[in-house]
Amino acid sequence: MSPNLDSPVQTQMAVALFKSPLGGGEYHGNSRMERKSTGRRRVFVQTDTGCVLGMELDRSDNAHTVKRRLQIALNVPTEESSLTFGDVVLKNDLSSVRNDSPLLLTRNFMHRSSSTPCLSPTGRDVQQRDQSGPIEILGNSCVFAKTRLLVKEIVKAIKNGVEPLPVHSGLGGGYFFRNSRGESVAIVKPTDEEPFAPNNPKGFVGKALGQPGLKRSVRVGETGFREVAAYLLDYDHFANVPATALVKITHSIFNVNDGVNGDKPHSKKKLVSKIASFQQFIPHDFDASDYGTSSFPVAAVHRIGILDIRIFNTDRHAGNLLVRKLDGVGRFGQVELIPIDHGLCLPETLEDPYFEWIHWPQASIPFSEDELEYIEKLDPVRDSEMLKSELPMIREACLRVLVLSTIFLKEAAAYGLCLAEIGEMMSREFRRGEEEPSELEVVCLEARRMIAEREILSPKAEVDEEEFQFDIDYEDAGYDFSPNMASEDFMTRNPFQFPFGGGNCRTQLFKLDESIEEEESEEEETSFNYVPAPAKNVSESKLSMSLKNITLGDRKQKHPSFSGTKPENGDLARASSGHRSANEQLPVSSSFLKLADMNEEEWRLFLEKFQELLYPAFDKRKSVTVGQRQIQRLGTSCQF
């Protein structure tokens, strides 16, 4: 049974860090090979309150022995708990766990007692038990070569007495780590100091690691690996994302909260280990909010926008676009853009993205030949496999969002849409306080409906009533919609306003029925190979023709997201109109559909239908855009 991710944390426990002997050497180059040959793997287990324990696994180890070591070392209760590795709940078999992987221990029942605190070992204990370096990179990919050089600089500086500095801006905990000259070279963000995490130093606490965070589709403690994913996906440094890695890092500067309210940091600093994102610090002059955006290079805006589309960035605001002036002969007024803060990308469900650049004039300029060539070479399946290899803890739902958004980008660019048009098709609209699905979501809803109808018409459509265990659950609002799927008039009058598969649609968000047909226990895994969508003159089924009848400017599938319900996160969940930044207003985001509840065969069929439906949607978007441009030209031509 999956844990209830919305249950409140009753007591915030102090985070302690204990590290088992991992052997000498800063990067463990030789010990990696020894572990590989003997079947031993090093892992870092983190509790949902932030405690970190490094340990080595033998082939005979299982989840029970890992929990037992945690209980002995950290004095934390492990009963009624689950050991998870991304989507996988680990039991007896730990073969899926790779070397240097972070695991998470979550409590199934969130009631905690302050009488069983998480005790920190003394400095002497740490010295005796841990012979490893103060910074351990989780992963051994060659792409982290630059990060390894930065780590060496920082370790040398720490030994010389150069202390890191806390970052005072933002909602989460962050720290500038410096080199021997006192220059900031990296910014470190511990996962247990994120907004709402147990050890947040700025008062934004209240949830355990693994629960829904600032965005419901991004869990607390999981923004760090998303930062790394954005860097890994930025092939050839195309968008200029700084080098980023996931690390286990030990220092006394990190925050550890005491008490329920998280407002009593430790008075006596001890060495504390954290799982954190580690990103190269780029010296800069401004951020985009302090500089005229019209002077930004078209290519830089396009490249950052292409990355944002691929990773479905839900928080690209001006504050996380750094601006650096370029000095030199002939470079007067030229600037370079550096995108940072990608912790809210790759959500587990489609929601409303935020693209600061969407109304910049550069975004309306067509892609260059080089940009189109780069987009054409993108392979969503290769990207997904790469992330699973480099970040094995990443969830399948995130990978499906990546695949979907990359296909959407490729087809839209090939059709001739510009960056602004693509971003607008992905963005939702708010009208009269009600949220409407984006054009991208409308296409997805239609594709899901077509798949569901295909299953209904199939004689094998026998759906089990077992609920799909998807950790980020949705509240049951008690709505019951059961229109006649066979009614052609209903579909013509109300396109997309009915549930899929004839199931019981729970809310007005038209969320998908979670009762999905179980696959055979010995089913063969179906691999999806990306194939470009057919040409524009594809023969469209009667069902897909309904997509052409919908007016994209008047999408009628709405949802009263702010009516009669109290925002979950107080001021951070206020109702707003128009686009929002996560640093400003964050209403509880809606989910019109999920991608993770499809089995492999359903996912393959869904992507086929999705690609078939894209060109009618592109036609409609192009006609809407042309109309808007004509109106705009008429309006400006009258202003003398």
Automatic annotation (TrEMBL):
Lineage, top ranks: Eukaryota, Viridiplantae, Streptophyta, Embryophyta, Tracheophyta
EC number assigned by the record: 2.7.1.67
Molecular function as annotated in GO: 1-phosphatidylinositol 4-kinase activity; ATP binding
Signal sequence residues: none
UniProt xrefs under Pfam families: PI3_PI4_kinase
Keyword Transmembrane helix included in the entry's annotation: no
Enzyme class: transferase
Family matches, as InterPro entries: P4KG1-8, PI3/4_kinase_cat_dom
Region feature (Disordered): 553-583
Keyword annotations of the record: ATP-binding, Kinase, Nucleotide-binding, Transferase
Domain PI3K/PI4K catalytic: 161-459
Family membership: Belongs to the PI3/PI4-kinase family. Type II PI4K subfamily.
Taxonomy, superkingdom: Eukaryota
CDD domains xrefs: Ubl_ubiquitin_like (cd17039)
The protein's name in its UniProt record: 1-phosphatidylinositol 4-kinase
